[in-house]
C-alpha cells in the first residue's frame, strides 16, 4: 500500500514537472512568434517634477499573448534574456522610443525625454554605442533626451566593461539612470564609479516611506547621498499622496507612480502631453 502511494506521488511530481516544462516551452514558442512579428507595444509612464511639471516618460514593454492576455515583462523579459530573444526586443524598444520622441516633436509637443530599460546583453554589445548614435541621428534626438535605465545587478559580471560602456554612452549624450536602486549589491562601491545622472529609488523603500521611520530614514539617506554626488532622484511606485509628501519633504526630485498615472498607451500619453502646460514640456 505504502509502495503504491510512493509510486503515485512520484507520478504526481513527474507530471507537475512535465506540465511546468511544457508551459515554459509554450511560452517560449509564443514569445518567439511575437518577436518574429514584433507584436509588442510600448506604454509610457509620466515622471513628474516636484513642481508638477513633466520630467519625461519611462517606456515599458507590453505583450498581449494570444489566448492569454497581457503577460508581465517581469515574466517574459527574463525568458527573452535566456533565449537570446532580448537582442531583437531591445533593438525594437530603442527604435520605437526614438521614433515616438520624433513623432511628438514633429507634432509640436516638444523634445520629450524618454527612458528605456536596458538588458545586460545590450550593455555587453560592443556595437551598442555606435548603433545608438545612428538611431538618435536618424530621428534627430537631442542630447539628454534619450535615457537608459540600468540595474546594479547588470554591473556584476563584468563591472569594468560595464563602466566603460556607460562612460561611452554618457559621452554620446545619453542620460543614464540606475533603476531599482538599493535592491542590488555593492550600491556604494559602484556609485563612486558609475557615470550616471539619475538614481531611481526602488518601490520597496517608497511603499512605507510615510509610515515606517526606518524606510523614511533610508530614503532620506539615499536622497542626500545622491544629491551629494550630483545625481537627481526619481521615486518609483508612488501610489499615495502621503508617500509623495514624505518623499518631497526629504528632497526627492521626481515622482513616478500610479498616483499620477499608469503606463499609458501612445494615444493616451499623447493626450497627457497635450494637457501639460507648455512650460512643462519645454524639454530637458
Ligand atoms: P522597472 O523598470 O523598475 O519599471 C517599473 C515597474 O513598476 C513597471 O512594471 C511599472 O508598470 C510599475 N509601476 C509603476 N508605477 C507603479 C506603482 O505606483 N505601483 C506599482 N505597484 N507598480 C508601479 P512593469 O511595466 O510590469 O515592468 C516590470 C519590469 O520589467 C521593469 O521594472 C523592467 O525591469 C522590465 N522591463 C519593462 N520594459 C522593459 C524593456 O523594454 N526592456 C527591458 N530590458 N526590461 C523591461
Ligand atoms: Mg525602469
Ligand atoms: Mg525600477
Ligand atoms: Mg522595479
Automatic annotation (TrEMBL):
Domain of life: Bacteria
Domain EAL, chain residue ranges per copy: 24-277
Protein's name according to its UniProt entry: Bifunctional diguanylate cyclase/phosphodiesterase
Organism field: Pelomonas candidula
Taxonomic classification: Bacteria, Pseudomonadati, Pseudomonadota, Betaproteobacteria, Burkholderiales
Residues of the full protein shown: 404 to 687 of 687
